[in-house]
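FAQ: What does the model actually see?

It sees only this:
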Amino acid sequence: MHKITYLLIFNLLISYSVLSQKTENTYSFTDHIRFGGGFNIGLSGSFSTISISPSAIYDFSNEFSAGLGLTYVYLKNKSTYNNTTHLYGGSILAFYKPIQYIQLSTELEELKIDQNYNTANFSRWQTALYIGFEYVTGNVALGLRYDVLYDEEKNITQPSALTPVFRFYF
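And it is asked to produce this:
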């Protein structure tokens, strides 16, 4: 009888010991997700632009993150052209931090562009593939990105293949 009691107590102590080995640093899937993106508002007498680009990224490690983003841009030009443009679409993002304050990024973006010139309407798709270099401090990244697919004749969203980037994630 004593052998069974000792064996039962020994078994309980081992079970408790194994269960107490559970670490405090266990994370769920949602603990690695960050939300953020970018926004822009530009207003003048004849030109207005409003854009919002929310995104969600998953931190695979301290160095590598990837995710998805959405984009909406409203442009209104009241000058001699008098046009309105709506851009909307999505993107796939990837970030790599080789050292603490430096981030390399890549983004594949697909935008649907709907333009209204007085009485004429135009619609088309535009693809961009950005390679970026950013300075990161806290939740904010500032830098430049280059569109390797940029075509000066077809691109209406930016005047150059090189554009600034401002991102924040929480």
